[in-house]
C-alpha cells in the first residue's frame, strides 16, 4: 500500500482505519451504516470514506474509498462495494464548507439518538457535557438524500465542532482524526450520562450558567490543548494489543 499512496495519504488511511475500528469497541457503531471521513492532507477536495457494506471492524487502511467533494470515485479497491449517498451528502457538505475540518464523524448511537429526540437537547449536567455547551442543532429533514439540505446543515453547524441532528444522531467536525474521535467519544459519554440521570427519576442538579461557561472555556484548544492529540498514540496502542490488521 505504501507504494500506491503518498506518505501523507498512507498515514491518513491508517489513522482513519484505526478510528473506524475504535468506534465499535466503545459502542458507537451501527451495523454497516454511518461514516467517518477524512480529508487527504495537501488536497482541498479529496476525502476518504468507508465502503458501504463493510462493518467498522472490517475496515483497513487499503479498503477505504477515495472520492472528491462532487461524489466522484477516484479510487475504489472493491468491485462489489461503493459509497452510501446519505453519507456523501452530510460529509461532503461539511468538508466543502469548513476547510479547517480534517475529519467528520456521524453516529446513530443509542444515547445520541435519545438526546437528539429531547426538546431541551444536551443539558449541562456533567463536566463532559459542558465541553459542548455551544453545540449546534439541525432539524430532521428525513433521510439525508436531498442535496439542497447541505446548505441548511452547514449553516446550522456554523463554526462549531459538534452538532446534534435532531431525531437522528450526532456529528463532530474536527481538525484531525485524533481530535474527532476524542470529541465524539466525550459527546457520546455526555449523552449516556444525561440519559442515565434522567432515567433515574432523581431531581437533577444543573450547575449555574457561569460555571458552565467557565468549564466550556477551559475545554477550548487555545486555552489548554487540542484534546485528542495526546490521547491518540494510546488509542493506537489499544488497537495494536487487540488486532493490528487495521493497518493493512
From TrEMBL:
All copies of domain Class II aldolase/adducin N-terminal, residue ranges: 14-195
Pfam family, one: Aldolase_II
Protein name: Class II aldolase/adducin family protein
Protein family: Belongs to the aldolase class II family.
Amino acid at each position: 500500500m505504501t507504494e500506491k499512496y503518498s506518505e501523507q495519504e498512507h498515514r491518513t488511511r491508517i489513522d482513519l482505519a484505526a478510528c473506524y475500528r475504535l468506534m465499535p469497541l466503545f459502542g458507537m457503531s451501527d451495523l454497516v451504516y454511518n461514516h467517518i471521513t477524512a480529508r487527504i492532507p495537501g488536497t482541498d477536495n479529496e476525502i476518504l470514506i468507508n465502503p458501504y457494506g463493510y462493518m467498522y471492524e472490517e475496515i483497513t487502511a487499503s479498503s477505504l474509498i477515495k472520492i472528491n467533494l462532487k461524489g466522484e470515485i477516484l479510487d475504489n479497491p472493491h468491485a462489489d462495494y461503493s459509497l452510501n449517498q446519505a453519507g456523501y451528502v452530510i460529509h461532503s457538505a461539511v468538508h466543502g464548507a469548513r476547510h479547517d475540518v480534517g475529519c467528520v464523524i456521524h453516529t446513530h448511537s443509542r444515547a445520541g439518538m435519545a438526546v437528539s429526540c429531547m426538546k431541551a437537547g444536551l443539558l449541562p449536567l456533567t463536566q463532559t457535557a459542558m465541553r459542548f455547551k455551544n453545540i449546534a442543532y439541525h432539524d430532521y429533514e428525513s433521510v439525508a438524500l436531498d442535496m439542497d439540505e447541505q446548505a441548511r446543515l452547514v449553516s446550522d453547524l456554523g463554526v462549531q465542532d459538534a452538532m446534534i441532528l435532531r431525531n437522528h444522531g450526532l456529528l463532530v467536525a474536527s481538525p484531525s482524526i485524533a481530535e474527532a474521535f476524542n470529541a465524539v467519544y466525550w459527546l457520546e459519554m455526555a449523552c449516556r450520562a444525561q440519559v442515565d440521570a434522567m432515567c433515574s427519576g432523581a431531581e437533577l442538579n444543573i450547575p449555574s450558567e457561569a460555571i458552565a461557561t467557565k468549564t466550556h472555556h477551559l475545554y477550548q484548544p487555545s486555552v489548554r490543548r487540542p484534546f485528542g492529540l495526546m490521547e491518540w498514540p494510546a488509542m493506537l496502542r489499544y488497537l495494536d494489543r487487540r488486532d493490528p490488521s487495521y493497518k493493512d
